[in-house]
Amino acid sequence: MSHRVIIPTPLRRFTNGVETVEVEGKTIGEIFDQLEAHYPGIRARLCEENGELRRFINVYLNGEDIRFLDRLQTSVGEQAEVSIVPAIAGG
């Protein structure tokens, strides 16, 4: 099953400027694996070396923050939308 992933502007250099991509996966982790397979280097911007989600990257599954679900093991249903949102610091 294919899922829509919204790519933020800072990561679009990996997708040749494409804002939305379609990938398959049963979990957020599998979706990230597919992103990496199609767009090499993108996973390193999303995850730490130990595989955990980077601190300043927020990922939403149909509007819900995966940090409050099962993180990268979060199950993804049919026709899901995944939004990747880098946190912006400032004040």
Topology of this structure?
Elements: E1 2-6, E2 20-24, H1 28-38, H2 42-46, E3 57-61, E4 64-65, E5 81-86
Short précis:
By secondary structure, the chain is α+β, with helices and mostly antiparallel strands. The protein has 2 helices and 5 strands. The radius of gyration is 12 Å and the shape is globular.
Instruction: Give the low-pLDDT segments.
Output: none
Radius of gyration: 12 Å
Distance between the termini: 41 Å
**Can you give the helix content as a percent range?**
10-25%
Shape label: globular
Main sheet attributes: strand count, strand direction, barrel closure: 5 strands, mixed
What structural class results from the helix and strand content? Answer: alpha+beta
Q: Element order, helices and strands?
A: EEHHEEE
What's the total count of β strands? Answer: 5
Strand content: 25-35%
Give the strand line-up of the largest sheet. 2-1-5-3-4
